[in-house]
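Forgive a beginner's question, but might I ask you for the amino acids of a protein and the tokens describing how it folds?
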Amino acid sequence: MYITYRMEKVYAVTMIFLSVSEVYSDSHSLRYYYTGVSVPLPGIPEFSIIGYLDDQLTELYSSHIKRRIPVAAWMKEYEDPEYWERTTQVCKRDEALFKHEVKTVMKRFNHTGGLHIVQVMTSCVLRDDGGFSGYQLYRYDGREYMFFDTQRVTYIPTMREAEITTQRWNSLDVRMGEAAKNFLENICIDRLKKFIKYGKKDLERRVQPRVKVTGRVSGKVAKLHCQVYGFHPRAVDVKWMNGEDEVHLHETTNILPNPDGTYQIRVSAEVTPKDGDRYFCYVDHSSLEEPLKIVWESPQASYLTVVITVVSIVLILTPVIAGVILYIRNQNYMAADTSDASSDL
């Protein structure tokens, strides 16, 4: 329970600054997110590493638990006894380096105190055709300040504050790029191939999404919500449409994990319905043969539908009711005639 709580905290702080929304329909990716904070916070580790195979959270290390642990169920069956011990030692080394790097980056940005976050995403991608690629991104307080160019084996600054660091790392004395390139093209790709083998069953699992559409009308404006949940894998396309046109004024949450390994997302839109408008939530997922189109019925439209239905029923039943009444009257008249005839006898 303690470790689970820590995992949730590490996951939360990572998701604030780094997105895991990358989707490769014809490839697989292995990504590691390194996070270091300048000031320890309750429940938030000073340093952490989170690993992902495609959309699957695979492994975790943090300065709280001091070891690298498997997260995905299939990772616990990974048949390499030395892997966890070996990578734990590497993580401890990275932790020491990262703590120093946080202080260095703060100095570059002229920050002497307060809460600041340094994050690195390193990723390798293996395509179905056998080709591969990799990259590293560096962020400070959520903003990218440099990245690694694998083609030129060079670190490139995207902010002025990173120029000193990139010059040092690219120098002939340091040559940080060579180590990064070796990890991305060899160690990472080799590890990715092994993980794909063990996680194949879970990676290929397909669970169809469930969709709930709601809306609230205030004056002439309607706020529409489309809740899509219970789907797997993570990649999904959700949007509001008005006929053939996409509704651009919308809000989208992150794709969030559920405890059962599936995912959920909510997409909202604010619209001003007009006559002839037909709003629906469009959902496309790899588990579906055809995209789902769930129509939103406005209260006015629903009321009109009820009125039309009631009027139609009345119009249909009126002749029937009139016929029944005439039939009953005729039966009464015939009974009365028969009674009169009997009394005469």
Observations:
- The radius of gyration is 32 Å.
- The first helix runs from residue 2 to 17.
- The first strand starts at residue 27 and ends at 37.
- The CA atoms of residues 10 and 44 lie 6 Å apart.
